[in-house]
Design goal:
By secondary structure, the chain is α/β, with parallel strands linked by helices. The chain has helices at about 5-10, 45-55, 80-95, 125-140, 140-145, 165-180, 190-195, 220-235, 280-285, 350-360, 410-425, 435-440, 445-450, and strands at about 75, 100, 115-120, 155-160, 185, 210-215, 220, 240, 245-250, 255-260, 265, 270-275, 295-300, 310-315, 320-325, 330-335, 370-380, 385-390, 395-400. The chain folds into two domains: about 5-115 and about 220-290 and about 385-450, FAD/NAD(P)-binding domain; about 150-220 and about 295-380, D-Amino Acid Oxidase, Chain A, domain 2 (2-Layer Sandwich). The longest helix is centred in the middle third of the chain and has 16 residues, at about 165-180. It is globular. The structure holds flavin-adenine dinucleotide.
Length: about 450
């Protein structure tokens, strides 16, 4: 059996076909404006001042609701993806009879555990265009949500330690430039100017030969993005249900009819799987098998020090990356743990390996103390690209496969999935990410640009 046949067979769902297709005649039945809207306090210096004097309390950022017995759209997963879908459905398309279900609290998954790197200097034109749209949405997000998401476009450096990495950097830079992305290969002297503490001499075991420099890249406050989308969605009438676990999905004659939760059943013609690390468990509930394995990804943070690192630095060869937060802490990350697991615990092995690689890049950090480490789950696909859109079960949609790099895609995915639901048609910007590509063998070649780089 060829590799392609094997993938097709592995993906064949219980319905016996691999033909992601739009659901039938749902669009006209989607409720518009059925959710209960509310005025939202506007965050402003004036209101801060006023409430300080009047002792008028700030309203909760989002409200608690009773679980309704039916919604037009049920989004499973209250991370950045699920919340962004709900937000854009409500604000761009007026579809507000929507709920977001999370088995824990919003942002408890990867969205509250990531290292918040945003960039668009990917390798494939499809990837570059997609992530660039997200960067553009992020640039305006604080104003749009009236919530400071602290997007700091401080520049992103991907280091090359050997000739083949340098060649890949050049390739990426060329693809990026063709897509109008600010991205270029720079040499050790320019790198030293940007990051004076980096050892760019020929002494290290892996000397730095050059880097891909991407000025619009940077970091963001991940919790603020999650809370901002939740607040915006709630304002438009979306119901956010925390501590509500989906334990089953009802399917009748090949189409979704609702979900079963630990708090009761909900009927819905559209169910969106936005559960990242848990994505295959949810898809299994409707018999749609996904080419996804789940692996832990760890990160760590140091005690705060004075600002000295004004750029995000990534080394694929050393499997490490770092940035400095506005509070002065150094945030470090690496690649996924080398085995699939649903464990979210840090390991000694990780922090030892991380420390040794960080010190190869910046020996001056040897006296810094690590404050804490943590782990989240990553839904890895074979081509390091997401899976978005229709599935063989009508009304069951997926926004998954976000691996180690999905936080930056929250806004564009939310926008595109909301568009797909409203139009019952796949928007062009996500056409390349359809589930069908694993059946036809049209995989995307993003691996080199996405693995440790986030
Ligand atoms: C350590 C680490 C560093 C990372 N760094 C970056 C980075 O720098 N840049 C970047 O772009 N990406 C990064 N990522 C990846 C990024 O965090 C994820 O891809 C992204 O957050 C996925 O968002 P999401 O909304 O799809 O899923 P999540 O935020 O994981 O949300 C999924 C939600 O689904 C809920 N859920 C699961 N099962 C059920 C169920 N049965 N019923 C109801 N709810 C359920 C979970 O509770 C969870 O809250 C990193 C990830 C980790 C772990």
């Amino acid at each position: 059996m060829s590799g392609r046949d094997r993938i097709s067979r592995a993906l064949t769902p219980v319905t016996g076909r691999l033909s992601g297709k739009p659901y039938k005649s749902i669009r006209n039945t989607l409720g518009k404006g059925t959710g209960e809207k509310r005025g939202q306090a506007r965050y402003s210096a004036f209101d801060l001042f006023r409430r300080g004097f009047t002792k008028d309390p700030w309203p909760p950022v989002w409200r608690e609701h009773e679980l309704s017995s039916s919604y037009d759209v049920v989004v499973v997963g209250g991370g950045v993806h699920g919340l962004a879908i709900a937000y854009y459905l409500a604000h761009r398309h007026g579809i507000t009879n929507v709920c977001v279900l999370d088995k824990s609290y919003v942002g408890s998954g990867g969205s509250g555990r990531n290292t918040a790197i945003i960039r668009s200097n990917y390798l494939t034109p499809d990837g570059v265009r997609f992530y660039d749209r997200s960067v553009k949405l992020y640039e305006n997000l604080s104003a749009e949500l009236n919530f400071n998401v602290m997007f700091s476009q401080r520049g992103h450096l991907t280091l090359a330690h050997n000739d083949s990495s340098l060649r890949t950097m050049r390739w990426r830079a060329e693809v990026n430039k063709l897509e109008n992305i600010d991205s270029e290969v720079i040499g050790p002297e320019e790198i030293k100017k940007l990051v004076p503490y980096l050892d760019v001499s020929s002494e290290p075991r892996y000397p730095i030969l050059g880097a891909l420099y991407h000025p619009p890249g940077g970091i963001i406050r991940h919790d603020a993005v999650v809370w901002g989308y939740a607040r915006g969605a709630d304002t438009a009438g979306v119901h956010i249900h925390q501590n509500t676990e989906v334990v089953g999905i009802n399917v009748s004659s090949g189409r979704v009819t609702g979900v079963r939760t630990n708090r009761g059943d909900i009927s819905a013609p559209i169910v969106v799987n936005a559960t990242a690390g848990w994505a295959s468990l949810i898809s299994n509930m409707v018999g749609v098998r996904m080419p996804i394995t789940t692996s832990p990804l760890q990160a760590a943070v140091t005690e705060p020090v004075k600002p000295f690192l004004n750029t995000v630095v990534v080394s694929g060869s050393l499997h490490v990356y770092m940035s400095q937060t506005d509070r002065g802490e150094l945030v470090f990350g690496a690649s996924v743990d080398p085995f699939p697991s649903y464990s979210m615990r840090g390991s000694l092995d990780f922090i030892e390996g991380l420390a040794s690689h960080v010190l190869e890049l910046m020996p001056a950090l040897s006296k810094m103390r690590v404050l804490r480490q943590w782990a989240g789950l990553c839904d890895m696909t074979p081509d390091y690209s997401p899976i978005m859109g229709f599935t063989p079960v009508e009304g069951f949609l997926v926004d998954v496969g976000w691996g180690t790099y999905g936080f930056k895609a929250g806004p564009v995915s939310g926008e595109a999935m909301a568009q797909l639901i409203a139009d019952n048609k796949t928007p062009q910007i996500i056409e390349a990410f359809a589930l069908e590509r694993f059946g036809t063998g049209e995989l995307l070649g993003e691996k080199g640009a996405a693995s440790v780089g986030h």
